[in-house]
């Protein structure tokens, strides 16, 4: 049974701070890693994908992957109230299906 | 493109009734996924199709659930008979290729009384 674990939160940060979201996974064969953002009452939308160990930056978002530790994280710099949402971590092995974590709720206060 | 389209957006029904959820994937996408999301279990894959053929239905909870994809632009998820524990948000997603980004529809919020 593939498992993806996330702290449910909420993670509360002030506006302008760095938000750090973490995820661990059980399947060592996982090759692709994704972060989805889901606003309340809306559908998930992909914001980052990462496939290799290290960091990947896209604007204010940085995804970090450590396959040896089976750990993936998402950093959001200069957090904005509009970043308040639930962030879902998802992993995939090869061309198999995505396995999602239950998500971490992020609250950014003005 | 209009994105993935789902209908209805909200459904309230009574236990024992048949429920049919509908999905139109993004044109040109050859993979279609049905998910269910609850607070307790998170986002779970129910079934997925490739080129209209069901590939993996191991996530379908019971025989009360069935899914079809009669053509590349339409899929249904049917629950018969429905039970209160089926109450959840059901998402349809599609992708171009198995490794492609999955794009989610707006979801159908189902409440079974």
Topology, element by element:
The complex is a heterodimer of chains A (110) and B (113).
Chain A: E1 4-5, E2 11-14, E3 19-25, E4 32-38, E5 45-50, E6 54-58, E7 61-66, E8 71-76, E9 85-92, E10 99-100, E11 104-109
Parallel strand pairs in A: 2-11
Antiparallel strand pairs in A: 1-3, 3-8, 4-5, 4-9, 6-7, 7-8, 9-10, 9-11
Chain B: E1 5-7, E2 10-13, E3 19-24, E4 31-38, E5 42-50, E6 53-56, E7 65-71, E8 74-79, E9 88-95, E10 103-104, E11 108-112
Parallel strand pairs in B: 2-11
Antiparallel strand pairs in B: 1-3, 3-8, 4-5, 4-9, 5-6, 7-8, 9-10, 9-11
Question: How would you concisely characterize the structure shown here?
Answer:
Chain A has 110 residues and is mainly β. Helix content of chain A is 0%, strand content 54%. Chain A is globular, with a radius of gyration of 13 Å.
Tags for this entry?
heterodimer; A: mainly beta; five-stranded antiparallel beta sheet; globular; B: 113 residues; mainly beta; seven-stranded mixed beta sheet; four-stranded antiparallel beta sheet
Poorly predicted regions of chain A are: none
Described by its quaternary structure, the protein is: heterodimer
Order of helices and strands of chain B: EEEEEEEEEEE
**Which secondary-structure class do the elements of chain A indicate?**
mainly beta
Shape of chain B: globular
What overall geometry of chain A do the principal axes of the alpha carbons give?
globular
Of all protein chain pairs, which has the greatest interface, and how many residues does each chain bring to it?
A-B, 18 and 18 residues
In the predicted model, the low-confidence regions of chain B spanning at least 5 consecutive residues are none
The largest sheet of chain B, given as strand count, sense and whether it forms a barrel, is: 7 strands, mixed
Q: What is the percent of helical residues of chain A?
A: under 10%
Portion in strands of chain A: over 45%
Mean pLDDT of chain A: 94
Number of strands of chain B: 11
Alpha carbon gap, first and last residue of chain B:
36 Å
Class inferred from helices and paired strands of chain B:
mainly beta
List the helices and strands of chain A in order. EEEEEEEEEEE
What is the radius of gyration of chain A?
A: 13 Å
Assess the beta-strand content of chain B as a share of residues: over 45%
- Determine the number of helices of chain A (DSSP H or I, runs of at least 4 residues): 0
Number of strands of chain A: 11
């Amino acid at each position: 049974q593939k498992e993806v674990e996330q702290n449910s939160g909420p993670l509360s940060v002030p506006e302008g701070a760095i938000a750090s979201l973490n995820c661990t996974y059980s399947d060592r064969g996982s090759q692709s890693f994704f972060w989805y953002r889901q606003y309340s009452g809306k559908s998930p939308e992909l914001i980052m994908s990462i496939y290799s160990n290290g960091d990947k930056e896209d604007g204010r978002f940085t995804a970090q992957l450590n396959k040896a530790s089976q750990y993936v994280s998402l950093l959001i710099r200069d957090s904005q109230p509009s970043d308040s949402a639930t962030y879902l971590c998802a992993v995939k092995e090869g061309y198999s299906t995505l396995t999602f974590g239950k998500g971490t709720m992020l609250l950014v206060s003005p | 493109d209009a994105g993935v389209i789902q209908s209805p957006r909200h459904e309230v029904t009574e236990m024992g009734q048949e429920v049919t959820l509908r999905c139109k994937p993004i044109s040109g996408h050859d993979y279609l996924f049905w998910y269910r999301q609850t607070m307790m279990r998170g986002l779970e894959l129910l079934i997925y199709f490739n080129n209209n053929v069901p590939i993996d239905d191991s996530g379908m909870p019971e025989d009360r659930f069935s899914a079809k994809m009669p053509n590349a632009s339409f899929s249904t998820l049917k629950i018969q008979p429905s039970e209160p524990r089926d109450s959840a948000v059901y998402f349809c997603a599609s992708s171009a290729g198995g490794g492609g980004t999955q794009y989610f529809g707006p979801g159908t919020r189902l409440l079974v009384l």
